Amino acid sequence: LAFHGCTFEEKKLIALFNWYIIYIDDAVLTDPLPCTLFQSRFIQGLPQRDPVLDAFADVLRALSAIYPPLQSNLIISSAFEFVTASCVEPQLALLDDTVPSKTADTAATRFPLFLRERTGLGLPGALMLFSPSQPTDFIACFKALGDMTFWIAAVNDLLSYVNADPLACSDVG
Length: 173
Prior knowledge:
Layout: H1 8-30, H2 33-36, H3 38-44, H4 51-66, H5 69-98, H6 101-107, H7 111-119, H8 122-128, H9 138-164
Helix pairs in contact: 1-4, 1-5, 4-5, 5-8, 8-9
């Protein structure tokens, strides 16, 4: 339903993109180096240090082949930002354990939103709702992306919170 008008091949690439994102989100917790090197190896055309990341690179290239250039540029740059921010997140967790949170929070009040914008992937999610095989007014879509990315990330956060701790939500409602 969410990808109405997309061909099976387009839906398959979107599904694979999301699967690799979940893989990266988990992989950085155990071995962040391959993910840390992902972008530079991608740009240099080098094989990745993890074969799953080679497959992710193939999916990014395939997405860039089916989406118009402006959309594919935003999808790929958002994917790069996600990988980088995901590599940083575990280090931030270590910092939070050693630095009083008040000091860190007052020094960087917008940091949680900054990080969320990079790890939320609302932008690729929003862009992928528009089928690359059907004509789309990109400028009209571009104007809507701010709201779309916000709501995609907000719903994702809500569902992640409920999924992570269903007991915390048992008294709601």
